[in-house]
């Protein structure tokens, strides 16, 4: 691993564990056992390092997510396994990281939420394609349109302001939004699989 990649990876871990505000270039240098000069030789400033770290982490997370999904027996089980993986991953990240990102680095936060290579449009597209190929999802929908709708649904579910305003439970999310959306994509075979795994799919939206 070259120096630049090592700095980027370890800085990303520190940002995630301690929050962005609490991690200085000095802390990163001390953690890595290198000089601050070495960091500045590879990155313009903390903002540049953060931006590159977030992007790199998103790529790694996407690759790991895809492996988890592809290793599942079918697309429905894959959705559940992937949600479990993401939930476990999110628990390792300090909530301060996201609040700091939104408040202190709004441009990076916006890119994180909007860029298709970060938002993982390709993963939901892969889910849809796999579901169609397995005969679990119907073939008569526009996959690009449905993929965009899926991403927008994720945005709604993840939007804290919307959650607070509507005061709904995560069980409501599963029963009223996620499962109806999923069933609407399904063939008879798919509906049977959803019914078989309904409790697990509802569990996707529960805190553990």
Describe this structure in words.
- The structure is a single chain.
- The protein is an all-alpha fold and 208 residues long.
- It folds into 2 domains: 1-119, Tetracycline Repressor, domain 2; 120-208.
- It has 14 helices and no strands.
- The longest helix has 25 residues, at 46-70.
- The chain is elongated, with a radius of gyration of 19 Å.
- The relative contact order is 0.10.
- The model has no long low-confidence stretch (mean pLDDT 88).
SSE order and pairing:
Blueprint: H1 3-18, H2 25-32, H3 36-42, H4 46-70, H5 75-91, H6 95-104, H7 106-114, H8 116-119, H9 121-133, H10 143-158, H11 160-166, H12 170-185, H13 188-196, H14 198-203
CATH-defined topology of the largest domain: Tetracycline Repressor, domain 2
Question: Major sheet: size, sense and barrel closure?
Answer: none
Weakly predicted, low-confidence segments:
none
The whole-angstrom Rg is 19 Å
Q: Give the topology string: H per helix, E per strand.
A: HHHHHHHHHHHHHH
| Domain module tally | 2
Question: Which whole number gives the mean pLDDT?
Answer: 88
Proportion of beta-strand residues: under 5%
Specify the overall morphology. elongated
Number of beta strands: 0
Looking at CATH, the homologous superfamily of the largest domain is Tetracycline Repressor, domain 2
- CATH class descriptor of the largest domain: Mainly Alpha
Structural class: mainly alpha
CATH architecture of the largest domain: Orthogonal Bundle
Question: What distance lies between the first and last C-alpha atoms, to the nearest angstrom?
Answer: 35 Å
Number of helices: 14
| Helix percent band | over 70%
């Amino acid at each position: 691993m070259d120096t630049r990649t090592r700095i980027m990876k370890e800085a990303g871990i520190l940002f995630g564990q301690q929050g962005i505000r609490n991690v200085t270039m000095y802390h990163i240098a001390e953690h890595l056992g290198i000089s601050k000069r070495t960091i500045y030789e590879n990155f313009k400033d903390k903002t540049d390092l953060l931006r590159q770290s977030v992007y790199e982490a998103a790529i790694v997370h996407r690759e790991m997510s895809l492996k988890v999904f592809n290793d599942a027996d079918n697309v429905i089980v894959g959705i559940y396994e992937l949600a479990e993986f993401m939930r476990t991953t999110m628990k390792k990240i300090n909530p301060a990281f996201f609040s700091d990102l939104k408040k202190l680095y709004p441009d990076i936060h916006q890119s994180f939420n909007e860029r298709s290579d970060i938002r993982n449009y390709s993963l939901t597209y892969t889910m849809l394609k796999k579901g169609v190929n397995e005969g679990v999802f119907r073939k008569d929908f526009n996959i690009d349109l449905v993929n965009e709708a899926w991403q927008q649904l994720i945005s709604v579910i993840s939007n804290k302001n919307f959650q607070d305003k509507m005061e709904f439970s995560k069980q409501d999310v599963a029963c009223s939004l996620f499962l109806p959306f999923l069933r609407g994509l399904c063939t008879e075979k798919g509906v049977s699989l959803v019914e078989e795994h309904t409790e697990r799919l509802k569990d996707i939206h529960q805190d553990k």
